[in-house]
Amino acid sequence: MSQLSSKHVIGIEHLTVDDIQLILKTAVQFKEIINRPIKKVPTLRDITIANLFFENSTRTRISFELAQKRLSADIINFSSSSSSVKKGETLLDTVNNILSMKVDMIVMRHASPGAAHYLSERIDANIVNAGDGTHEHPTQALLDAYSMQEKIGDLKNKKIAILGDIMHSRVALSNIFCLKKLGAEVTLCGPATLIPKHIERLGVNVSHNLDETLQWCDVANVLRIQLERQNTKYFPSLREYALYFGVNKQRLDKLSKEIIIMHPGPINRGVELSSDVADSEHSIILEQVENGVAVRMAVMYLLANKQQF
Predict the structure, then answer these.
(1) Which has the closest alpha carbon to 175: 152, 150, 198, 155?
(2) For residues 263 and 222, is the Cβ–Cβ distance under 8 A?
(3) Among 33, 36, 37, 258, which one has the highest count of C-beta atoms within 10 angstroms of its own C-beta?
(4) Longest CA span, the chain
(5) Residues 133 and 199 occupy one common structural domain
(6) Which pLDDT value is given to residue 125?
């Protein structure tokens, strides 16, 4: 298989195992390219990509833009805060106006779950979902899987823990879909108030004991407490959250083995993760950032259906 089964990457839920494996395999080649002295390839020089970010983003936006530049694509950057959306223009009208300028691919982040899927049924351009509300963030899950494979090899039967604010995290859902398709065992751990009811139906385990979960897992993917998405209090205080569910050096020192620590960023230091863990040799957080560029290059290259680098 040398091309994706879909013309869009809207969510991991809609990708096949072969799609995921193809993206990860292609990302290996692109990682080699971005570590060369000359980091660019002319692969997408005839492709125009519009980055539509209706929500704030730093890491994801920069990562996509850098990936596009490494592929020599033409780029249009759109920010809703300075656009006609503020004047009441609909999402579809905004996108159709941009597409009329002969745009081939859209990378979109939107606050509404399902926004990317809605567009995919109404326009011809390829769509990459860069996060839709609390639904999915597929390229983050792909770069997380790539980063894990670099460290521990094939993920089949590996034990992966996802810790923290599962309820508000699009990263969690995409990771669950991706890890399960790759054959990993997944345990979610956090306060009962931050883990959705019936999520075990997705084939995951649920724990509320952080120390037991850390002892069980090979990799701990620690999620940010998303205070901006919480309109009620889900735990008494950040200090209490850190006491019961914060990953710190004391907890890791008590384990009988070494585990890998991941975080999609940005980190609330001292809350879900202490600085001495985030900056330790256990952490691959900065490797995740680097791998994100290679994985996003792979996704856009495959969607453009190019036959060579």
Answers:
(1) 155
(2) yes
(3) 33
(4) 59
(5) no
(6) 93
Q: Are residues 143 and 266 in the same domain?
A: yes
Using an 8 Å Cβ cutoff, are 90 and 116 in contact?
A: no
| Co-location of 282 and 144 in the same domain | yes
* Structure letter (DSSP) for residue 9: B
CATH code of the domain containing 78? 3.40.50.1370
- Which pLDDT belongs to residue 89? 75
Report the number of distinct structural domains present in the chain: 2
Dump pLDDT digits (tens) for 237-254: 888 999 999 999 999 999
133: left (phi over 0), alpha (psi -120 to 50) or beta: left
- Beta-carbon contacts of 93 under 8 Å, excluding residues fewer than 6 positions away, are none
Give residue-wise pLDDT tens across range 53-64: 998 888 999 999
| Euclidean distance between CA atoms 28 and 7, whole angstroms | 21
Helix (H, G, I), strand (E, B) or coil at 231: coil
Predicted local distance difference test score (pLDDT) of residue 229: 47
The SS3 call for residue 1 is coil
Do residues 185 and 157 touch, judged by C-beta distance below 8 A?
yes
pTM over 0.90: yes
Dump strand ranges (E) for 82-182. Answer: 105-110, 126-132, 159-163
Cα gap 38→70, rounded to integer Å:
10
- Reading the block at residue 52, the tokens are 């539509």
Q: Are 156 and 106 in the same domain?
A: no
- Domain boundaries, position 252: 138-288
* 299 shares a domain with 280: no
**Element spanning 92, H or E:** helix 91-99
In the block, which residue shows the tokens 């539509």?
52
In the sheet that 105-110 helps form, which strands lie side by side, from edge to edge?
Answer: 74-79, 48-53, 105-110, 126-132
Residue 5 covered by a domain: no
Same domain, 269 and 174: yes
Residue 2 located in a structural domain: no
